[in-house]
Design brief:
Length: 368
């Protein structure tokens, strides 16, 4: 008689061990998350290196195909361009942006003082017409809102300056990521080959083929969307800077940089960027603020109707409803990065669901 028949509950021992380990993980979830955060922090240069290599790969492919350049020369050309752009940004653009932020922080008190004076005048006028004694409640509410707004804006701008100061510590990580990304680009075929070997080793032939085909599809979707959106946002940021200079809006470079960055977020991005641009210009000159608002709306329409479709086309294959849903869910879970990456991730989920549903319908011989 075997041991398993003598001890009928022996088969449950692995399940009990797994359950015990899961209990320990859940019971120490804070420590588990802390360890994960530390691991992400340690491997962040590798993650950033992969992201850099992924973004630069299409340009490297273009140089290799059209200029008939060898891999080493195409990598050299790309990184010379990247270093040149970074040098221009650090030496010319960054000081102006930092000066704009510093001046904005310095002018905040003056802006709130102007606003407070205007609000006080309006409340005084309201007191003359107030018959029901609601003016004190309105006055207290406005003062509370102004105080919270002032504190909130100061907190944001202080955080921005703090991040800028800490940029020197991040600079070395960026350099390390750039160096690692060179090896990703140089040996990308070897990495892809090893990944294929792993997939084939763990899955049968048909399943492995489907996984690799799906991987190619996802790679195409992500690369086209991210690179296309980046080019689109750079163009919009440049046009915005020229427009704000013509309008003579204050902090033109800073505001156009904000609008260019927020434009990476589909649908909501231009409106998110418009809020600080209009608010800051409003303190300087209300008429200019109206022109800035009109210009940003016109720019958003130009991007949505002409520039965006021309560069991106229908890369993700999602309707506006699903794009908005992806932005809301991604933003709620992962912030700004989630708002941006939520759209291609939702597109990947859509592809998976379509494949699964089509497979089920084919199995039942149903054609719709």
């Amino acid at each position: 008689m075997s041991d398993k028949r003598k001890i009928p509950y022996l088969n449950f021992i692995p399940l009990l061990i797994i359950a015990f380990l899961l209990y320990k993980v859940i019971n120490k979830i804070d420590l588990f998350l802390f360890m994960n955060i530390n691991l992400l922090s340690i491997f962040s240069p590798v993650i950033w290196a992969f992201a850099i290599a992924y973004l630069l790969n299409p340009l490297m492919n273009y140089i290799e195909i059209h200029l008939k350049a060898k891999r080493i020369w195409s990598i050299l050309i790309i990184y010379m361009l990247v270093i040149g752009i970074a040098t221009i940004s650090i030496t010319i653009v960054s000081p102006k942006v930092f000066n704009s932020v510093a001046n904005l922080i310095k002018d905040l008190d003056q802006y709130f003082e102007i606003t407070n004076t205007w609000v006080t005048e309006k409340i005084d006028n309201l007191k003359l017409l107030d018959k029901y004694g609601i003016t004190p409640h309105v006055e207290n509410s406005i003062k509370e809102i102004m105080g919270q707004a002032s504190s909130y804006l100061n907190h944001i701008l202080t955080a921005v300056v703090s991040k800028a100061i800490n940029l020197t510590s991040t600079f070395f990580r960026i350099i390390l990521s750039m160096i690692i990304s060179v090896y990703f680009l140089k040996d990308k075929e070897r990495f892809i080959h090893n990944l294929k070997k792993i997939i084939i080793a763990f899955f049968n032939k048909d399943r492995a083929k489907k996984i690799m085909e799906f991987g190619v599809e996802v790679d195409k979707l992500f690369s086209q969307f991210i690179i296309g959106k980046f080019i689109d946002s750079c163009i919009i940021g440049g046009i915005c800077f020229i427009g704000l200079m013509i309008i003579k809006a204050p902090y033109g470079l800073l505001l156009s940089l904000i609008i260019g960055l927020t434009n990476m977020i589909p649908y909501f991005g231009p409106f998110i960027g418009a809020v600080p641009a209009v608010a800051i210009t409003l303190f300087d000159n209300p008429i200019k603020a109206i022109w800035v608002l009109v210009f940003i709306i016109a720019l958003q329409q130009f991007d949505g109707l002409f520039l965006g479709p021309m560069i991106l086309g229908d890369k993700v294959g999602l309707s506006p409803f699903w794009i908005i849903l992806a932005i809301i869910i991604g933003g709620g879970m992962f912030g700004v990065v989630g708002m941006f990456l939520g759209v291609p991730i939702m597109a990947v989920i859509k592809i998976l669901l379509e494949k699964y549903i089509n497979k089920k319908l084919e199995a039942q011989n149903i054609k719709l």
